[in-house]
Amino acid sequence: MTSPSDLPSKDDLVKKTQVALSKLNLTVDQTEESTEHSNSLLLPQYKDITKFLDEATDEFEIGQLVHLESFGLYDAMSSIEIMDPKMDSGMILDSDLNKPPFNLRARLKPKEVLGIIDHLFNCEMTWHSGHSLSQTIFTCMYFHHVSELNQELFINDPNDDSTDSDSPIEFVILVLKSYVFGTIKCCHLVWDEMTKGNVYEEEDFSTNKYGISMYENFPDSQCIKLIEDAETWMEQHGCKWIREKGQHDCENVIRAILSRLHLRKSFLLVLMHMSQSRCQQYLQAQRHLNTSMQLLNGIKEGANVSLSLGVDVSGAFDPLINRKLVSQTPPRPIRLLTMQESINEMMNMLKSINATCEIINYKSATSLMNFLVYHASQQPSPCAFSRSILQSTICTENRILGKMSMFQLIKDSVTELTNPPYIYFASKIDIATSPKDDLIDENKSEISKLVHNFVDSTVKPLTDLYRILCHNRSRQRRNMCKVLTDWDLLQEEAEHIDTKLQSLTNEEPLITEEGPSYSFHLSSWVYHRKLVLLEDILFLGFELDLYGTHEYMMIYWYIDYLLGVHYQHLERTHMHVTENKKSKKQQENLRLAPPPTSTVSLLVSQRLMIIAKQDICRGIHRTISALRKTGHAIFPRLEFDDESTRFWHRFRMYRTLGSPTILSYKDFKDMTQFDNITAMDLFNVSLQNFQAARSSIEKLLAMKPSELRMDFCHADFTKELQAMLRVCIANIVSLHKIIEECKENEIVTSHKQQKQKQRQKNKKSLTSSSVTPSSSSIQTQKLTSLRKDNKVANFEFKYHPWYPVITLK
Amino acid sequence: MTDTPKIKQLRSYLNLRTRITASDNRVFNGIFMCIDKYKNIILSQTEEFRGAEKRFVGLVMIPGKHIIKAEVEDLELSDEYT
Amino acid sequence: MDVVKNKQNFSTSTSSIIKQLTNDNTDITYVPYSSELQLPGIMSLIENDLSEPYSIYTYRYFINNWPNLCFMAMDQGTCIGVIICKLDRHRDALRGYIAMLAVKKEYRKRKIGTTLVKIVINAMKLQNADEIVLETEYTNLGALSLYHNLGFIRDKRLYRYYLNGVDAFRLKLFCKGEIPIVEESQRVTGEKANG
After folding, report:
1. A339, A358, A377: which is the final residue of a domain?
2. Distance CA A167, CA A242 (A)
3. CB-nearest partner of A639 from C151, C179, C195
4. Hey, which residues does C86 pair with through a beta bridge?
5. How confident is the model at residue A254, as a pLDDT?
6. CA of C51 to nearest chain A CA: how many angstroms apart?
């Protein structure tokens, strides 16, 4: 049994609840009324203008308004219309009049307690999914009266005519009370996290408490104790009583109640550990996360019996509380999650938090970034709470994972990709202990200053990037567009710094066909990150369903170009990393890092991934080109649409960037016209693209997580590769089928010889992108003939949200 | 267009504390901001009373058809107390 | 803001657009908004259609400020379709915004909505709009295809945009072609070492 000393003083809590309740106006407050009367002499006197209003407004012209000068229609728009059920939260509806009364003193049966527990859980998870507290948790009457659930409540009840066969009050004052308190404490810890401003208020999550207390002063540890007392009572008395009642499903009821108490306790412990500063207790949190997931799985597996055991208690939840609390905005339509949905919501959240706990075992900057990228792309997308926790974990007060400095992270990130000379990021102590070198000594402080300037400028763009990856998918794309210019400016600045560092370190350029080439360690890293952004902005457009099918060719063509630039850039970086052959002496002095095998394998894998993506995109836009020739992909002219205008606007955010060079609509037309190439040839080239992508992906699948720097997300990475593989295979199969169908077409065969002759020539022009005009009469002829089958191109993103499978249907 | 005397008088009530009783007997007490031909009245900083139950509702529009009583602060009378 | 009744200044070019667009639809006529007497008809039409609640003052905000961007489709004396818009500055652009569009159920599938949108597109173009935008629920396939067929693109996705928690698309139509950017020629377009 609970001893009174374990709990905060009853008076204390009652007082607090009363404050909350008076705000809620759950009961008529007599004192307030009397004050009003006594003050009435000081209040303004009113005169009745009801009749006058009729007369005055009768004299209004049609459409006339009388209003304060300072008050315009724009202000008027935001007024709440009284007596409109869609806007007026204070209206009494029929359902209000039939509202069942709530009886706090009801001796609830175990199944009724279970019913309240499950409903409250649904409320909690619905809150997590983005709805307001006032429409979820706060609708629970026991939430507002939880501190009153004590023995006295029942002992002093004059109306209590209970008999021995009634349920023991402990089901209410221990089991229900501890569960409700546990839920409140969980919500409060979540609330603390969500008010850090990591996610979008109202869009992702709603933190408005409407002045209702979450029992902030009731310590978490006491709440744990309370739940433990309830568990003990259940095991010693409660279970026995339920069994004695002898109902057929008594064991299920016992299991259901106990598992919910256990889960509540372990979830609360998870949140308590997660909330400690600097990620210090993530290890402990993970222990309870595992327990929580096991318990939740247990509830899920026994779902068919346990979820239907609970019994509704009339009046225990009052949705009208929302209308009392939220007076200045129209009520939102709401549907509470079902038990099954709530369980899934919680499971996803627990998994996501667990993954976040893993990353504090920092492996590399790249693997941290990769984790974020894959976490951000998960479907269903991670909930707002786990996204906020992740953000807090990654970066709080400029501290990464609770322990690292931004300097260290940027150092790692740059080093992992471009492997700059050791001296760049060396600390003062490192330099002091390094071998003497006059030149370097002279310049080391200057080098260090320049690199620190670079780091200072990088902190914001990089943290922004981390934060963006923790937002909802729609925001990710929008915010990526916003930070593009920051990265562009950073690149420009980094180029200046690189140039200065070149001379300070006496860098000897590599001699290439195009002349001397310098390494540009810092700006190369920036450019790489910027190109990823440019590509992802376009790719995310597919995932968010922003493009019409008539736009696919243009978009994939542009991504193809960006990936090409990116590939060349990494090729160049690769060259500098591997062929950095300086004179022996100089190498020693600069203390180049040992043979950077990790950098090389990272560059190899990055390039493979880029070339795989490029081949897929190329295969897609070429297939569409071919299908336009065959007449299978004809996009009707849209009245006010102008392709060149659309082209200009779709890529407008790239227009102001220093690099890469923006391509024009003319470039697009010139390079995708393929006038002198047959559809059949285009199909065959596309086929080769998909086959090439397939072999690149297979190579990637054979690489180790550490080589790929996918330490925290290798499973997701593999899953993506497999999805890409399926896209390739499905398109290869589809293309074979399309080619077969084309071959069967007589006109195509009649032109076969002519085309065969052209084929070699055409292939060349495809790769060089040079285009020569050819007769359009053949085109039209072919177009009409091939369309005999009445099929049209069909795009299905069934394996990967970024790449479709193209078929004829 | 020039105001009729009544409209002019109505205009003088703008910015005054106004008390509107709605068809469901709720009373809204706020500052008179705007009115149209259909007596759709906008009050700002409004408090809503249902019996003794009171809550702040801010900027509201009470449709003319739902107004059963309208009262405006009587400046002459009120002045005696200020 | 007081009275909207002076319709004489309604440009002749807009009325010619209406004529042009509505030649073949003999039973339905398209008229510009002219008096607040039309407001109750417009409101009852929209209230049946849209999920978001609006008060009479919301309609007035749009209609009183941009009366020449509100058009109605009439069958005899009854308003069976309406479009309500605004046009103002948004950053560097003059942006048209389609706030509400509704067509009575029995009159759908007759391109009445499309005609109303075409009328405002032309009216906004006459007023030199750079772009026209609107939001619609991402699940509203009817609206999406109507605007798509006119050349609107889906510019953005807005997460949980509506009161009911549903995502929206921001649709956009570009009224003007390429806007030359001065800085472009001034910037170093080469990629320096990173080409």
Report:
1. A358
2. 9
3. C151
4. C97
5. 94
6. 9
Distance CA A419, CA A603 (A): 11
Task: Determine, for residues B42 and A76 on separate chains, whether the beta-carbon distance falls below 8 Å.
Answer: yes
The model's pLDDT over C52-88, given as tens digits with 9 standing for 90+, comes to 789 999 999 999 999 999 999 999 889 999 999 999 9
Q: Which long-range CB contacts under 8 A does A404-409 form with residues at least 24 apart?
A: A404/A362, A406/A455, A406/A459, A406/A462, A406/A463, A407/A452, A407/A455, A409/A365, A409/A368, A409/A462
Residue C19 scores a pLDDT above 70: no
Q: With CB atoms and an 8 Å threshold, state whether B36 touches A57.
A: yes
Domain count, chain A: 3
| The dihedral formed by the CA atoms of C34, C37, C38 and C44, expressed in degrees to the nearest 10 | 160
Q: Which residues pair with C78 in a beta bridge?
A: C75
All residues of chain C having their beta carbon less than 8 Å from the beta carbon of residue B66 are none
Q: Which chains touch C (3 or more CB pairs under 8 A)?
A: A, B
C57–B1 CB contact, under 8 Å = no
Q: Are residues A28 and A155 in the same domain?
A: no
Write the single-letter amino acid at A426: A
C-beta of residue A492 within 8 angstroms of C-beta of residue C191: no
Chains A, B: CB contacts within 8 A come to 154
Q: What is the ipTM of this complex?
A: 0.95
Count of beta carbons in the 10 Å neighbourhood of residue A159: 7
Which domains, and CATH codes, for chain B? 5-79 (2.30.30.100)
Q: Give the span between the Cα atoms of A761 and A160, in whole angstroms.
A: 98
Q: How far is B38 from chain A (nearest CA, A)?
A: 7
State the pTM of this model. Answer: 0.88
pLDDT in tens, B13-69: 999 999 999 999 999 999 999 999 999 999 999 999 988 888 899 999 999 999 999
Q: Domains in chain C and their CATH numbers?
A: 1-174 (3.40.630.30)
- CA–CA separation, C82 and C101 (whole Å): 6
Q: Is the pLDDT of residue C22 over 70?
A: no
Residue of chain A nearest B15, judged by CA positions: A68
List CB contacts (< 8 A) between A639 and chain C: 118, 149-151
Residues A267, A288: Cα–Cα separation, whole Å: 7
- CB of A473 closer than 8 Å to CB of A544: yes
Query: Per-residue pLDDT for C193 more than 70?
Result: no
Residue A656 sits in which domain range?
366-750+773-796
Strand partners, B54: B49
Return averaged pLDDT per consecutive 10 residues of chain A, 809 residues in all: 41 44 43 46 83 96 95 95 89 76 92 96 97 96 95 76 78 97 98 95 93 93 97 95 87 94 98 95 97 95 78 91 81 90 96 96 96 94 96 92 95 95 82 61 86 97 97 96 97 98 91 91 98 98 97 97 98 87 50 68 96 98 94 88 93 94 95 90 96 98 92 95 98 96 65 53 46 40 54 95 96
Contact A656 C181 (CB under 8 A): yes
Which residues have CB under 8 Å from B65's CB, separation 6+? B23, B38, B39
Q: Tokens representing A42?
A: 């000081």
Q: What is the DSSP letter of A239?
A: H
Instruction: Quote the Cα angle for A423-A429-A435, to 5°.
Output: 60
- B5: closest CA of chain A, how far (Å): 9
Token digits of residue A662? 């923006």
To the nearest whole Å, the CA of A99 is away from the closest chain B CA by 17
- A412 Cβ partners below 8 Å, 6+ apart? A364, A365, A366
Of the residues C1, C4, C57, the best mutation for testing chain B's interface (the one with the most B CB atoms within 10 Å of its CB) is C57
B 47-66 → A contacts, CB under 8 A: 48, 50-64, 66
Q: Are residues A291 and A378 in the same domain?
A: no
